[in-house]
Amino acid sequence: MLRRSQSLIILQLALLFVLPVGSFAQNPPGERSAMSDLQMSQDDIANERISPYTLRRMGGLVFSTPFTKLDGHGHGPVSAHEPDLLETRPTLQGNGTFLRVNGLDAQTCMECHSVLSNAVVPFRFGVGGVGSASSNAMFKPTWIDPTTGGKENFNGRFINPPFLFGSGGVELLGKEMTLDLQQLRAQAQQSPGTRVALVTKGVSFGSIVCQQDGTCDTSQVEGVEADLVVRPFGRKGEFATVRAFDVEAMEFHFGMESVELVGEGVDRDGDGVINEVTIGQISALHIFNTTLTPPIMTLSSEAQDGQELFEHIGCADCHIPSLTTNSPMLTYSFPEVPTDPTANVFYRVDLRDYPAFFEEAEQGGIIVPLFADLKRHDMGPGLAESFGEELAAQFTTARLWGVADTAPYLHDGRAMTLTEAITLHGGEAQAARDAFINTLDAQEKETLLTFLRSLRTPHADDVAPDLQPVNNGRDWEH
Ligand code: HEC
Ligand code: HEC
Fold it and tell me: Using CB atoms within 10 A as the burial measure, which of 140, 180, 291, 413 is most buried?
C-alpha cells in the first residue's frame, strides 16, 4: 500500500515540473530532435535542484526515446569522421544509419532491453528487461560468411542482452569489493614478501605478493584484472559501473557520442552534431538504470529442497545466493576513478528506498540476492568465443536472479532451456555440471529446476514506476 500511494503522490508532484524544452537550429520544419526535450544539467543534478522523480523519469526517457539523425544518431560521411575509429562499422551504401553488424543496430536502449518475462505467452514487456536473440549485439566481427556452415564463418561476438533490474545493488557490491581489494594490495605493499589472500565478501580472487619497491606479482590473481577493479557489467566483466557501460552503449548501438567520451564541442563522427549526449543526460540515465527494482523470489518447500541440491552439487560455488553490502548508499561519481570509487561523488541514492526497495541487511547495508560472485570463470572450449584470445572462454558468472523469465540463456542465447544451459557448462564448472547430469535422478533434477523457476523478475507494477506513461500534455489520444 505504502508503495502505491507513495508513487502516486510522486507522480502528481512531478506534473508540477515543467520539463525544459530546447530546440536545435538544424531541425527542419515540423521535425524536432528528441534530445532537446531531455535537457539535464550536471550542475543541477549535483546540487539537487531536480527532484529524484524528475531525474529518474528523464533518465528513463533517455533510455526509451528513439534517437534520430537530428540527435546525432549514426555517423557522418566516412571522409568526415576519424577514420581508424569507425571504419569497421559497415552501413548500406555508406548511408551511415544501420546495418546491425558491429553496432548502429537500434534507435533506443529499450529496443533490446524490454522483455520483463517470457515465462508467459505472449511475453510481457518491461522497461530494462532482457532481449531475445533478435536483439543480440554483433560485436566486432571482421568475417561473416553466410554461405558456408561450420565453426569458422563468424569471428566476432554474438551477445544476448541481459536485464538491468537490480543493477544498483550489483554496482554497489562491485564498488565495495574493489575498495577491499585495493586495500588488500596496499597491505601487501606494506609487508613485502608476504603473500596476501584477495578475499572480499567471501569471494576469493586469488592472492598477491609485493616487493620492497611496491611492485606486485599478480600471476596468482584470478577472476579479475591485475588492477584489482571488480567489473560486474558486460558478460566478460569489462565495466565497473553502469555509467561506463551506458557511454559505450550510446556510441556502439546508435553512434551517439557522449561529451565525456569525445569532449565538449567535438564532432568525432563527423555527422554535424556536437554534444550529442551531455554529462547530465548520462548521469540521469545512470541513476535511472541503477534504481530499477531487483528481481524477486518466493521459495516453496520444493524450491527450498531444490536450492539445497543446487548448493550441494557445487552450483553455489559460483552462483553465490546473496552478497551483502556494508552501506545502503550507492554513490555516483564524475569523472569516475575505477580504482577509487569514493572519488568525485556528486549524488547518492539509498537503495532501501523507493523505487529500488532492496532488503535491508542486519548490519545496515542491503542484501543482493544475485546468485553470482562478480568473478570471471573459464567455462571451457565448448562455450569459448572465436574472439578475445586468452579471455575467449571466460565469462562473468551469470546472475541467476530472475532466471525463470529470461530465456534464452548463456552469453549468446544458445541455450533455450535451463537444462541446456546447465549441460553446456564446462571448464571450471565441469564438476558441478557432471554432478547435475550424473548424480541427480530425474526427480531431483526437476526439484532443482523448480528452484530456478522461483527466481523471478520484478512485478510489472514495480518496474520503472517513474516511467509509467503519464499524460504530460504532449501525449495525443488514439
Ligand atoms: C541492439 C541491442 C541493444 C541495445 C540497443 C542496447 N543494449 Fe544494452 N546490452 C545489449 C547486450 C547484447 C548486452 C550484453 C553486452 C555484453 O555483455 O558485453 C547489453 C548490456 C547492457 C548493460 C550491462 C548489463 C550487465 O548486467 O552486464 C547495460 C548497463 C546496458 N546494456 C545498458 C544499455 C543502455 C543504457 C542502452 C542505450 C543507450 C543499451 N543498453 C542499448 C544489447 C543492447
Ligand atoms: C565455475 C563457476 C560456475 C559453476 C560451478 C556453475 N556455473 Fe552456472 N554459470 C557460470 C557462468 C560463468 C555462466 C555464464 C556463461 C555464459 O554466459 O556463457 C553461467 C550460466 C548459468 C546459467 C544461464 C543463466 C543465464 O541467464 O544465461 C544457468 C541456468 C546456470 N549457470 C546454472 C548453473 C547450475 C544449475 C549449476 C550447477 C549444476 C551451475 N550453473 C554451476 C558459472 C558457473
Answer: 291
Count how many residues are written for the chain: 478
CB 268 within 8 A of CB 203: no
CA of 416 to the centre of ligand 1 (A): 20
Residue 477 Cα to ligand 2 midpoint, Å, equals 46
pLDDT per position as a tens digit, 88-111: 788 888 888 898 999 999 999 999
What gap in Å lies between CA 319 and CA 337, rounded to an integer?
28
Q: For atom 39 of ligand 2, which residue has the closest CA?
A: 315
Tell me the C-alpha to C-alpha distance, in Å, between residue 55 and each of 44, 52, 62, 260, 468.
10, 5, 11, 19, 14
Distance CA 101, CA 99 (A): 5
Among 425, 446, 449, the mutation site with the greatest number of ligand 2 atoms within 8 A of its Cβ is 425
Do residues 303 and 60 lie in contact, with contact meaning Cβ atoms separated by under 8 Å? Answer: no
User: What is residue 26's predicted lDDT score, i.e. its pLDDT?
Assistant: 67
Which residue's alpha carbon is nearest to atom 14 within ligand 1?
161
